[in-house]
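Researcher: Quick test of sequence recovery. Tokens follow.
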């Protein structure tokens, strides 16, 4: 297949565009009989509402093939966009503050100056922060995997059915990592109330080397609780998933997401413009 440029693809999309619309074209095509098919969305220029879609091909005008490609295009592109956005957003977060907090807690625990009644709280908080950072490393690895996955498809020139299965298997992964990060932080959110209150203890002042002097204050329950709860609600669908295994979590979200994909496919099929 001859390579198509972004400008050439945009010209294909503009054939079906109305004057008061913008067109966006998904990056990845699906191939049938060596013909590539792309999914295009036509949006209101001011409302950004999806008005219609089109299935574009630089290789064929076979309308039956184009219609056959729609389900695969919907399932793959929507799922990949979700995985791409979720991993990108989390991978780009700056976790340096958590590194500072981990060092602070570890150094205090190793110093032997902490009063016995505080040891369990500091140790538990250290483990929660350390786990959060290790999980963020997993998120960065997942992000690299998603990037490689996308590049492999671009190098091939189109996605295939097994790519749909793979990206669907990746969909719950960012949420699972975030759930593990948020759960213990929320569960033990009151620990930092004690740690913040204790920060001016003369024996602990030498360990206070934060760039932002409000770091520990910002970790207290009064500051962090609301956002932690909101984040936890998002990745748990506002349910108690404390007894869920990783498999349970993945099955729950995959089943729910595939139902949404099926509904979306039915909706989009009704607003195809060029068939």
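Model:
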């Amino acid at each position: 297949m001859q390579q198509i440029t972004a400008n050439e693809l945009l010209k294909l999309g503009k054939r079906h565009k109305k004057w008061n619309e913008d067109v966006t074209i998904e990056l990845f095509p699906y191939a049938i009989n060596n013909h590539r098919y792309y999914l295009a969305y036509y949006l209101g220029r001011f409302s950004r509402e999806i008005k219609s879609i089109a299935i574009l091909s630089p290789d064929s005008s076979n309308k039956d093939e184009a219609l056959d490609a729609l389900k695969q295009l919907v399932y793959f592109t929507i799922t990949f966009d979700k995985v791409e956005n979720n991993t990108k957003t989390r991978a780009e977060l700056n976790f340096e503050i958590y590194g500072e907090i981990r060092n602070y807690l570890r150094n205090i625990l190793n110093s032997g100056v902490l009063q016995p009644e505080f040891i369990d709280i500091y140790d538990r908080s250290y483990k929660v922060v350390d786990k959060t950072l290790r999980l963020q490393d997993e998120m960065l690895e997942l992000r690299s995997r998603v990037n490689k996955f996308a590049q492999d498809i671009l190098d091939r020139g189109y996605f295939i059915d097994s790519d749909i299965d793979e990206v669907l298997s990746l969909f719950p992964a960012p949420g699972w990592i975030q759930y593990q990060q948020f759960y213990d932080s929320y569960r033990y959110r009151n620990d930092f109330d004690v740690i913040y209150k204790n920060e001016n203890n003369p024996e602990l002042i030498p360990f206070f080397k934060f760039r932002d002097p409000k770091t520990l204050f910002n970790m207290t329950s009064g500051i962090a609780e609301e956002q932690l709860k909101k984040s936890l609600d998002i990745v748990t669908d506002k349910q108690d998933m404390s007894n869920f295994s990783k498999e349970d979590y993945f099955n729950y979200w995959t089943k729910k997401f595939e139902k949404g994909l099926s509904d979306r496919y039915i909706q989009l099929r009704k607003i195809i413009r060029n068939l």
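Residues 105 and 158 are 49 Å apart (CA to CA).
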